[in-house]
Amino acid sequence: MKKLLALCVVLSALWGGAAWADTPSQLKFMAGPPGGNWFALGGELADLWSKEVMPTTSVTGGAVANIINAHMRKGDLGFSNTSMIAVAQKGTDLGTFKTKSDNAKLLANLYTQYTYFIARKDFAEKNGIKTVDDLVNKKLAFRFATLKTGTGSEFVVKNVFESGFGIDYRKAFKEWGGTVEYASYSGGADLIADNHLDVFAFSVGKVAAIVMQIESTTDVVLLGMSQEALDKVGEAIGTVTFLIDPGIYKSVPASAEPVKVVGDYTSIVVRGDLDDQVVYDLCKSMYSNVEMLAKGVKDIAELDPKTAIPAKGLESHPGAVKFWNEASGKVQ
Question: Which residues contact 124 (CB under 8 A, 6 or more apart)?
């Protein structure tokens, strides 16, 4: 009995430090909801890894749920956002994650995510709004929408206001006489075109078709943020500053200055106790076949060994660190 208890203590200690490396016979990849890029890319990755690494199934998932399920070993790896992984590891947003998710590690940053605050031009000009800072400082009554709670977009938007400006947008906007709605990308585009919204905020890629769609029907402006606010958000959730370069969008013409926005990444979260060699092989297979994967979801072409693992802010899986350092020529 004493030997059994001692063994349990040892196994518990190993589990707590994620020192026990698991090599399963099959992997469960948690993608996204049907119809989106995550769902499509998840299927492509599962097929690739089944051929080159080990049998892998792809199931539906979500940015928050995938982190929690990786931490709890209910799935092996899946899509999320880098900022979410950082916060979950630290346990600093327990309203979203319920518990500290320190068995959830980063496998790779895949491609960039830009957080857009799009305002109707007539609203912005009437009220002298040029930045998100202006929206907050002027405490205007305006009609606002973002994607539904639990999405990566809403998570970042919520933290923009909480960390960058010290407000709960859901309460503050209503107190100022405004409204808050949750909509899909296409639904929000329709609402702002029909003049049922003043500002629509969401995260998406660098060259976003949804932004161009909105611009094709409505005169809009893209609202940047002060560096001070961007730095506060970055310190809280690990985001960075990205620039929307002039000439990409009608609302940021070639003659304009670049627009500073919150930058994040679509990434893959992996359970920390998955065998290092398995994780190394997953990274190698994905990177070796990135051109093929990009034929289905072109954003994956952004995958870069130099940015796959952040220098600070969150914990990456050792197997992933080893591969991406080798691929980028870094000395370990």
Answer: 130, 221, 223
Neighbours of 251 (CB within 10 A): 22
Q: Compute the distance between CA of residue 129 and CA of residue 139 in angstroms, rounded to an integer.
A: 11
**Residue appearing with tokens 């430090």:** 17
Tokens at residue 225, please?
């943020």
* pLDDT one-digit tens code per residue, 34-68: 877 889 999 999 999 999 999 999 999 988 899 99
C-beta separation of 207 from 244 below 8 A: no
**Which residues have CB under 8 Å from 230's CB, separation 6+?**
164, 239, 241, 260, 261, 262
Q: Each residue of 280-312: b (16+ CB within 10 Å) or e?
A: bbbbbebbebeeebbeebebbebbbbebbbbee
Q: What are the percentages of helix, strand and coil residues in the chain, rounded to 5?
A: 45, 20, 30
Check: CB of residue 82 under 8 Å from CB of residue 106: yes
